Amino acid sequence: MSPESHDVLIVGGGPAGSATAIRLAAEGLDVALLDRSHFPRLKCCAEYGSPEAVRELDRLGVLPALDRHHTTRLTGTTVTAAAGSQLHGRFAEAGGTPFRTTGLAMPRRILDAELLAHAGRAGATIREGCRVQTLSRRPDGRMTVTVEEAGRTRTLTGRVVVGADGLRSRIARELGLRTRGRLARIAFVAHVEGVEGMVPSAEMHVGRPGYVGLNPIDARTTNVALVVPADAASGARGDAAGFLRRGLDQLPALRHRIDLRGLTEAVMVTGPFDVRCRRSTADGALLVGDAAEFFDPFTGEGILSALVGARLASATILEALAEHGPVGRHRLASYRHARQRAFRGKWLLERTIGHAMQWPALFDRTVARLERRGMASTLIGVTGGFVPHTRILNPFALIRMVA
Ligand SMILES: Cc1cc2nc3c(=O)[nH]c(=O)nc-3n(C[C@H](O)[C@H](O)[C@H](O)COP(=O)(O)OP(=O)(O)OC[C@H]3O[C@@H](n4cnc5c(N)ncnc54)[C@H](O)[C@@H]3O)c2cc1C
Fold it and tell me: How many CB atoms lie within 10 A of CB 44?
């Protein structure tokens, strides 16, 4: 039997894969979107989106459907340092060109299912419960994947394969692009009802050894995310809820606000995040979203990066497939360059904040100064992707922050 054949095979139906599928199918390409899960599904994530993420969702045409779920319209983020300094960042006061003055809580059970359904409406063939196992390139340049689906093994081919299969990407591994990263951290994420003192704004609490994010996803429920170095998480084995409780107890500001009897489902655990890719392109294949690069959840916005990456990848694929013949790596190079331009500021900011967090006294002082000097909202706009990073990462601003 000859294998099922498409223009583009997209592996992974999270935000990166679905957004790529929406864009390519809308342009008339024959796209198959393959995911091992059945949707709706949960995903370990703090579920926070800035106004820029909202803009990308609007560009995809999925925002009206998301707005109908009435999840929280977030006004910004408050950051609390270990010694108690706070900054209050507000999207409305950040400057730049926000799409609207609020961000959006994006429960993944809702977001990912809406994006996937939208990809189907755009014309993509959706295959849930379809786990990709191998990837190879035929002598004629077509890409072949084998999948396990309903207990059977099948083969599909495409001119291009998009690896949108997340942090531990099978496609990146099959392409030989995976290597060790530096973020050896573990995350514990829970949905908890009845957290005290929540307003429609996210909170980040930095302590030792990790940090906790609170995101009010709707009127009752808060997403509680604890991120710690992997070596500090060894005591969590078999008791994720107990480990989360002990982590929260170490933060005086949170100890009495969160009662884990309000858990709506089991605590999710993911990590360590210590994988990265050497390149985002290969002959006949490219990587988007977490498969291409994982950003520290502290600066968040992995979903925004996945949606932006999908936009850049789609533009390159459309160009590459307009020509006949095999798609070599050189035809996909524009994607790699576009990523570098789009994410350079984000990399710099992530590294800067990551380093500052390792020095609690410096971090505390910086948080206090950002607040005092009226730069808190600018920072939230920069991490949110709608204020240029140069507004914070310039010598003048950096001296004002630490000197
Ligand atoms: C603790 C934590 C908190 C976070 N908080 C935020 C936040 O608040 N805001 C934010 O914007 N980002 C956040 N992120 C990052 C965000 O979750 C990711 O950046 C985002 O999910 C990336 O989307 P993606 O489509 O690349 O991958 P994913 O969402 O991981 O989707 C990958 C898909 O691929 C499928 N798949 C995997 N392997 C295979 C296979 N072999 N065959 C078929 N299918 C496969 C999976 O089932 C999955 O559906 C957080 C991440 C973590 C870990």
Answer: 18
